[in-house]
Design goal:
heterodimer; A: alpha+beta; Alpha-Beta Plaits; B: about 425 residues; mainly alpha; about 0% strand; globular
Chain lengths: ~180, ~425
C-alpha cells in the first residue's frame, strides 16, 4: 500500500482540464475537487456542484439586522424614552425605515462575507490550506482522493492523456505554508 | 441548447395577437366616445393623459434600454435588442398622440369646479395654471403663486418643451434603429461605434430632460406643489414598467415559437433588472415621501393629504404592495427568476402596478375623489387602458414585423449573447 494520499493532475490549459474531467468521469474515477486560478465556464455543472446557498444566508442576516434595529429603536424611542419630535407620534414608522434599511444592508453584507469566510475556511491572518500553490497562479489542478482509487498508474495515464503537464502524488493532503 | 438558430427569422404579425390588439383599440375608442357623450369629459381626458403618458414613457424607455446597452457595451442583450428597438420605432406615434392629448386638453374648455367650491370655465387638462385670468391681477381667478410660475408654465413654452423633448427622444430612437438595420447589411464595427456615440449623447440629454418632462406632464397638474424627487420617481416607474413589458413581450414571443435563442439566462437577467429597479422605485418613492412627512410643511404635505383621502388611500397602499412587496417577495430568489411562469406573472403585476402608480399621481389632481374608494376606478379607466394596451401591442408588433430579421445578426457582440450563461 503506497503512502499517497492525493493524486494531483496539473494542467496548463483550462480546456485540457475540462477534457481531463471528462476522461476521469468516463472511467468512473471520483474527483475530490478542482482548483483553478480563475472561474471556468460550465465547470460547476460538469462537476455537479450545487448552487451556492450564500444568498439564503444573506437573506436571513438581512432579516436579522432589520428586526434587531427595529426592536432597538422601538425600545429607545417608544418604550424607554418617548420624545415629541415635530409633533409626530412616538411610534412614527416612516422615521424608522432608513435605519432599518441600513442595518438590513449592513447585516446582509457582513453576514454574507463572514459566512463565505466560514464556509471556505478563510480567516484573516490565517494561511490558506492549498493542495498546490500554483493553482492560485497559473496552473489548473484536479485532485483525486488516492484512497480506494487504484491502480494509481491508470489514473496517471488518464491524466497524462488528457494533457496534464505533471502528475503529483502527495503524501499529505495540504502543503503547509504556515 | 439549440445552437442552430435561423438568424433570418422574421416576425409575422397575424392571428390572435392582431385580433386582440384590434379588439382593445375598438374597446378604447368606444370608451372614449362614450365618456365624452355621457358627460365624463374631464375623467376621459385625465385617463387619456395617463395612458398617453404611460405609452410615451414606455417607448422612450425602449430607446433608453438600447442606449444603455450600447454605452455599457453589454453583450448579453444583443440578441433581444429588436424588442426595445420596436418600442423606439413606435415612439413618434406615441409622442404625437400624447402631444395631441395635451394640446386638446389645454385648448378645449368646459364648465367645472376649480378649487374649493369655485366654478369656472376651465381647460380639461392643467386647469390650475392654464385657467383664464390666473396670471391677471384683479381677476377673480388670480393666483399669485401660479402667476409667479407663469414664466415657465405658459402654454406656448409648455407645448414647445413637450415637442422638443419627445422629438429629441424619437430622433435618437430612429437613429439607433436605423444604424442597427444598416449594420445588418454592411457588418463591421463602424455602425456599432456610431451607435455608441449617439447613445452617450442620448443618455446625457435624456438624463437632464426627462425630469423636466415629467414635471411638465404630470407634476404641473397640481401646479402649487413641487418635488425635486418627482423626476427620478417617474423615471423609476417608466423604467420598471418598460423592463416588465420587454420581458413579457419576449416571453410571449418565445411561447409562440419566435426567438428560441433567448434562454432562461437572458430572462434571469431581465428579472434581476426588474427586481433591482423595483427596489429603486421604492427607494425614490420613499425618499420623496419621508422628507415631506418629516418636515410636514402644509404646501408640501398637501400632495399626500389628497392621496390620503379615504377614496384614494386603499389604492395608494395597493401601489406599494404591487410595485414593492410583490416583486420583493416573488422574484427575490434565483429559482423564481428562472421560472418563466413566475416571471410572467410578476411582469403583469408590475405593468398593472405602474398603471396604478400613474393613476395615483394624476387622478387626485385632475378629477379628485368621487363616491366610494372602489368607485374611483370606473369603466372609463379600464376601457381607456385596454385601448392603449391594444394600440401599443398593435403598433409595436407591427414595427417588429417590419424588421428583416428578429436578431441584429451582424451585432459585434451577438455570439456573446447567443452563448450567454449565468
Amino acid at each position: 500500500m503506497s503512502s499517497t494520499k492525493y493524486i494531483l493532475g496539473i494542467f496548463d490549459d483550462p480546456d485540457d482540464l475540462m477534457h481531463g474531467i471528462d476522461n476521469l468521469q468516463k472511467n468512473s474515477v471520483p474527483i475530490y475537487d478542482v482548483y483553478t486560478p480563475m472561474p471556468i465556464h460550465g465547470i460547476d455543472a460538469k462537476l455537479g456542484i450545487k448552487d451556492s446557498r450564500l444568498g439564503y444566508a444573506a437573506f436571513m442576516f438581512g432579516c436579522m439586522g432589520g428586526t434587531t434595529i427595529f426592536t432597538l429603536v422601538y425600545y429607545f424611542l417608544v418604550h424607554d424614552w418617548p420624545m415629541d419630535i415635530g409633533g409626530k407620534n412616538f411610534f412614527a414608522i416612516p422615521d424608522f425605515i432608513p435605519v432599518t434599511f441600513e442595518w438590513t444592508v449592513l447585516y446582509a453584507s457582513y453576514g454574507m462575507a463572514f459566512t463565505f469566510f466560514f464556509a471556505t475556511h478563510l480567516f484573516p491572518g490565517r494561511a490558506p490550506r492549498v493542495m498546490d500553490l500554483r493553482a492560485t497562479n497559473d496552473k489548473f489542478v484536479i485532485a483525486i482522493d488516492a484512497k480506494g482509487n487504484i491502480p494509481h498508474e491508470d489514473i496517471n495515464t488518464i491524466l497524462k492523456e488528457a494533457g496534464a503537464s505533471e502528475v503529483k502524488h502527495n503524501d499529505r493532503k495540504y502543503v503547509s505554508y504556515e | 441548447m439549440n445552437t442552430h438558430n435561423s438568424l433570418d427569422e422574421q416576425f409575422v404579425f397575424t392571428g390572435k395577437a392582431k385580433t386582440w390588439s384590434l379588439v382593445g383599440i375598438v374597446v378604447g375608442l368606444i370608451t372614449i366616445a362614450g365618456g365624452f357623450l355621457f358627460g365624463y369629459g374631464e375623467r376621459t381626458f385625465a385617463n387619456l393623459l395617463l395612458c398617453g403618458y404611460y405609452f410615451a414613457c414606455v417607448c422612450t424607455a425602449g430607446v433608453f434600454f438600447c442606449a444603455l446597452q450600447y454605452v455599457a457595451q453589454a453583450g448579453w442583450s444583443a440578441s433581444l435588442l429588436r424588442v426595445p428597438q420596436a418600442f423606439a420605432k413606435v415612439l413618434p406615434i406615441a409622442a404625437a398622440i400624447l402631444f395631441i392629448i395635451i394640446f386638446a386638453g389645454l385648448n378645449l374648455t368646459h364648465h367645472t369646479e376649480v378649487g374649493e367650491g369655485k366654478e369656472a370655465v376651465a381647460p380639461y387638462l392643467y386647469k390650475l395654471w392654464h385657467l383664464n385670468g390666473v396670471t391677471v391681477k384683479g381677476s377673480e381667478n388670480y393666483d399669485p403663486v401660479l402667476a409667479g410660475k407663469a414664466g415657465f408654465l405658459n402654454m406656448p413654452f409648455f407645448l414647445f418643451r413637450i415637442f422638443l423633448f419627445l422629438g429629441a427622444y424619437a430622433t435618437f430612437g430612429y437613429l439607433l434603429t436605423k444604424y442597427s438595420n444598416t449594420e445588418d447589411e454592411l457588418g463591421g464595427l463602424f455602425y456599432y461605434k456610431k451607435s455608441f456615440t449617439i447613445s452617450a449623447a442620448f443618455l446625457v440629454i435624456f438624463g437632464f430632460t426627462q425630469p423636466v418632462f415629467s414635471f411638465d406632464v404630470v407634476m404641473s397638474l397640481e401646479a402649487h406643489w413641487f418635488s425635486t424627487m418627482f423626476g427620478w420617481y417617474n423615471f423609476a416607474a417608466m423604467w420598471v414598467s418598460t423592463l416588465s413589458i420587454i420581458t413579457l413581450t419576449i416571453i410571449l414571443l418565445r411561447k409562440s415559437g419566435y426567438m428560441q435563442w433567448i434562454t432562461q439566462d437572458h430572462l434571469h437577467n431581465l428579472g434581476q433588472l426588474m427586481f433591482g429597479f423595483s427596489i429603486f422605485w421604492t427607494y425614490v418613492w420613499f425618499a420623496q415621501f419621508l422628507l415631506i412627512y418629516y418636515a410636514n410643511i402644509p404646501e408640501e404635505s398637501v400632495y399626500f393629504l389628497r392621496r390620503w383621502e379615504p377614496e384614494f388611500k386603499p389604492w395608494f397602499w395597493l401601489t406599494i404592495i404591487l410595485n414593492f412587496m410583490a416583486p420583493l417577495l416573488i422574484i427575490m430568489s434565483r429559482d423564481s427568476k428562472r421560472a418563466t411562469s413566475v416571471l410572467k406573472a410578476t411582469c403583469i403585476i408590475l405593468i398593472v402596478g405602474h398603471w396604478l402608480d400613474y393613476f395615483i399621481m394624476i387622478m387626485p389632481g385632475t378629477i379628485g375623489a368621487h363616491g366610494e374608494w372602489w368607485s374611483q376606478i370606473t369603466p372609463i379607466e379600464i376601457g381607456v387602458a385596454l385601448g392603449f394596451a391594444g394600440l401599443f401591442s398593435y403598433l409595436m408588433l407591427n414595427a417588429l414585423s417590419k424588421f428583416k430579421s428578429l436578431i441584429p445578426k451582424k451585432h459585434p457582440f451577438l455570439q456573446e449573447s447567443l452563448h450567454h450563461h449565468i
